[in-house]
């Protein structure tokens, strides 16, 4: 039931994130606010007469309850700062949203994440670079954060999803609305292989003023910002500014000096942004070996010294650098518990996997030693 009160607090008209933060400094939780009287609310000096009126009216507003139930029927979850599930990467933002609406799931806090952004009207070269990086990130288990926008953003995300990777879309509208409509396939796929999130309630229509502000969440959720093609005066620079304020690494793909779509990237290089000429440049940020080299090493091990049986290879293939529970593994490989247990023991003895926590398994780290 606390989820409803959190939702209620987030949806009081005229009460924004900052006012909510101030209120919660003096109250235990959202339910306490819900039960405050007019006299008690007047004790909060930072609340205006209008604020108090809106809170009191919201206490008896059955529409908020109906909206909450409608949200749940649509399969949308609500998570606020008072809950553990709220992303830690967003908690320290000066203007962190009190609540998030989610369709799918939130990005993993322990896996690396990269925001791919760039020109909406990109060149064939830009499309190819975005596609290639999206695929590479997917193959290495790096999460993609972006805004489902036309061009570079959507291409990078779709490539990651098609390659079996995880992608997360931060929207400038309600998560029940696909914008732009041309990205409907990506919108549907991301819900299965990642998640959609927004600080705006369901039903919120896309408006031009909502998108720039949403960009702080894209950079906030990412460890690294990667720009592929951008004009000098482009919305990409808004995200760059947020990333720099948040202390995030900014990297760009350089381009020709006479190409308008590369002038923004080249300008950022002059200002000190990192240069990316290969996937390895991003891997270096995370201190990880070349994926190609790692895969070659693993292939050699599997094909020569280890000669894994088919079922052993199936189990090994379902694991990654993110710990996975024994229950999840069973569901994915469709083996009996005794059979799976024997295979896990064998793979551990071979040095291919290990158990970081009880009944959780992960591939042996391939980071630089």
From TrEMBL:
Pfam families: DNA_processg_A
Start and end residues of each Smf/DprA SLOG domain: 79-285
Database matches in InterPro entries: DprA (IPR003488), DrpA_SLOG (IPR057666), RuvA_2-like (IPR010994)
Highest taxon of the lineage: Bacteria
GO terms for biological process, alphabetical: DNA-mediated transformation
Entry's family note: Belongs to the DprA/Smf family.
Name of the protein: DNA-protecting protein DprA
Organism: Anaerosacchariphilus polymeriproducens
Gene this protein is translated from: dprA
């Amino acid at each position: 039931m606390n989820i409803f009160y959190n939702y209620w607090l987030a949806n009081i008209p005229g009460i924004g994130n900052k006012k909510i933060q101030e209120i919660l400094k003096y109250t235990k939780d959202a339910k306490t606010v819900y039960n405050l009287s007019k006299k008690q609310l007047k004790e909060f000096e930072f609340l205006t007469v209008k604020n108090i009126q809106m809170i009191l009216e919201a206490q008896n507003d059955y529409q908020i309850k109906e909206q909450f139930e409608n949200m749940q029927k649509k399969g949308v979850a609500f998570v606020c700062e008072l809950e553990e599930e709220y992303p830690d990467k967003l908690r320290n933002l000066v203007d962190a949203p009190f609540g998030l609406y989610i369709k799918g799931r939130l990005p993993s806090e322990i896996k690396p994440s990269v925001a791919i952004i760039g020109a909406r009207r990109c060149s064939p070269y830009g499309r190819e670079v975005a596609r290639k990086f999206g695929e590479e990130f997917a193959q290495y288990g790096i999460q993609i954060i972006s805004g489902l926008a036309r061009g570079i953003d959507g291409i990078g995300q779709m490539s990651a999803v098609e390659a079996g990777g995880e992608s997360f879309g931060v929207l400038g509208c309600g998560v029940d609305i696909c914008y732009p409509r041309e990205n409907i396939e990506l919108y549907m796929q991301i819900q299965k292989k990642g998640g959609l999130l927004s600080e705006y309630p369901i039903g919120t229509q896309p408006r031009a003023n909502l998108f720039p502000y949403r960009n702080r969440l894209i950079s906030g959720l990412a460890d690294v910002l990667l720009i592929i093609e951008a004009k000098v005066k482009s919305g990409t620079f808004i995200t760059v500014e947020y990333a720099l304020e948040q202390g995030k690494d900014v990297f760009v793909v350089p381009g020709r000096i006479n190409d308008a779509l590369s002038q923004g990237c080249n300008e950022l290089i002059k200002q000190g942004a990192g240069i990316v000429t290969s996937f390895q440049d991003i891997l270096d940020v995370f201190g990880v070996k070349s994926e190609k080299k790692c895969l070659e090493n693993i292939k050699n091990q599997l094909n020569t010294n280890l000669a894994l049986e088919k079922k052993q290879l199936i189990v090994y293939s379902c694991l990654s650098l993110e710990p996975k529970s024994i229950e999840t593994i069973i569901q994915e490989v469709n083996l009996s518990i005794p059979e799976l247990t024997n295979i896990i023991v064998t793979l551990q003895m071979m040095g291919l996997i290990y158990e970081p926590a009880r009944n959780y398994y992960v591939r042996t780290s391939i980071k630089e030693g």
